[in-house]
Each structure stands twice: as C-alpha cells, then as structure tokens.
Specification:
alpha+beta, Nucleotidyltransferase, domain 5, 9 helices, 16% strand, elongated
Length: 288
C-alpha cells in the first residue's frame, strides 16, 4: 500500500526520476546544449518518448539514459516494484516469483534482478573496525556421501567479515588458505581492529598483520571464551544466507554467487532502515 501510494503508475516513476536526475522543481534544468538553466517541457508524442525538451533549443533530456532502465521495454513502474520487493523481503525473492508477481517472462525477471544486484548492491570500500568476526563457509555441492548422495559439484568457499553491531562483507575466494583470504582481510578490515575467528590455522598470522586476534575452538565444543570472544554474529549471517539460497533460490552457480552475496550483505547492512533501503537503491539507479 505504501509503495502504491508513492508510485501509483509509470508516469509518477518517470517524474520522480526526472526530478531526481535533472530538475528539482520539475520544470527548470541545466541544458547541455544551451549551457545554462532552461525551461523544459514534456510533450506528448506519437512514440511516447520518455524525454523532456528544452523550450529554447529543442534539446532532449532522457531521465532513463545511462541507467539500468536504459532501452528497457519493461515499464518503470515494474522496475521500481521489483526493487521494492527485493528490499522488503528478508531472505530474497526468486526470478520465478518476480515473474508471477509482475507478469513478465522469466528471462526479463532474471535480467532485472541481475542488474539490480550487480549495479546497485555492490559492496562499499569502507573498512570494518572495532570488533570484527571473521569466518568462512561453503556453498553448493551435494549431501554427505554417508546419506547415499553423490555431490553435484564442488563446494564454493566464501569469506565473511562482520562488525559487532555493524556492517558485513562477504566475498567468494578460491580456497580457505591464508594466501587467498588474507588479501581480503587486509583490504576490508582496519589495522588495529580486534579480529575474532575460529581455530582455523589460516588465521594464525593475523597478529603479525597488525590485528588483535583471538579465537574460539569450535572443534572442542566451545563457542564463547574469555572476554565475549565468539563468532556467533557472522554465524547468524551465514544462517540467513544459507536459508535464502536453499529455500528461495535452491542453488546458485559459482559464476553468479558473488552477486547474490552482495544482495544479502546490502540487506543486512540496511536492516534497521527498510524504507531507506528502498530509497537508497532508487537513488543509486538514478545515477548514470
């Protein structure tokens, strides 16, 4: 109801995009051809062009140009609704479900989600600080051989890092050796931060890399030690990702796994502001 009140139709979405990109008051904008502020009008044409025209020189400005909506035959209203659906669910929504929701083909629904994940939900470059939990998990593969199942493929290793009470980052890695994980740890965690991990030997060199390191031995059945040392925050995020992939998407290929991880990290990092999450994506989509 809230979405339909703010964006009831295609014209409203186009008007919002026009005001956001070019014209605050909806009438005056900077004309690239004239080189100054001019009055623009949206004229009704036979081809229904999504553009505003400069009344001084006739130059056209297209609000959808150089955005993810560019040259898309899908209406803006459906694009906006797809973005809203992705931000209003906890574990995600599949392309098949979007196909049923908005009445497009599966190919169109998949393309919409693919562009939203890869263009709008990219993980930022800001480093994590304070207390940071680091852990790895594996996605994919078959069930254990003891249950009589043949694995469908190799499991894909993923490295996760989360601030206590803050943001999370997740990245696909070739393997869980120190050689492959340390570059991501150094890039995404601020030097001097307290890093909590499990007993994996690959984390043993963290103190030599400028971090304060402590670990908890899960193999011994210990999950919290000392001064509140644990990895339960990142474990909770992994549980959310696994439920989403297993229950919503069922399986994700190695090629596209990183984009799905970006979707989950984006929602997690904006978990306390669901309305702002939607507007954040709309604003990102409006940038060229």
């Amino acid at each position: 109801m809230e979405f339909m009140r703010d964006f009831p139709d295609d014209d409203t979405c186009l008007e919002w995009l026009w005001r956001t990109r070019y014209s605050v008051d909806g009438e005056h904008a900077e004309c690239p051809k004239c080189g100054g502020m001019r009055t623009f009008k949206k004229y009704v044409t036979v081809t229904q062009r999504q553009s505003w025209t400069c009344t001084h020189c006739g130059h056209h400005l297209h609000p959808t140009a150089e955005t993810i909506y560019h040259k898309s035959s899908t209406s803006l209203h459906l694009w906006f609704y797809a973005i809203y659906l992705m931000t209003s669910t906890r574990c995600g929504i599949s392309a098949k479900q979007l196909e049923r929701e908005i009445g497009v083909t599966y190919k169109t629904a998949w393309r919409i989600f693919h562009l939203i994940r890869n263009e709008l939900m990219e993980q930022d470059e800001d480093q994590l600080e304070g207390i940071v939990e680091v852990d790895e998990m594996f996605v994919g593969g078959g069930r254990k051989a003891s249950r009589g199942r043949i694995p469908k493929g190799p499991k894909i290793p993923v490295l996760g890092m989360v601030e206590r009470g803050g943001r999370v980052k997740a990245v696909v890695v070739p393997d869980t050796t120190a050689l492959m994980m340390y570059p991501h740890i150094r890039k995404n965690i601020k030097r001097g931060a307290e890093v909590f991990t499990d007993e994996h030997k690959a984390y043993g060199a963290l103190p030599h890399s400028g971090f304060v390191h402590d670990s908890v031995n899960h193999l011994s059945g210990i999950f919290v030690t000392g001064n509140n040392v644990h990895t339960q925050t990142i474990d909770g995020f992994w549980a959310l990702v696994k439920r989403g992939i297993g229950g919503v998407y069922h399986s994700v290929s190695a090629k596209h796994l990183q984009s799905y991880l970006s979707e989950y990290t984006f929602r997690y990092n904006h978990r306390n502001e669901p309305r702002a999450m939607f507007l954040t994506l709309l604003l990102r989509a409006a940038r060229p």
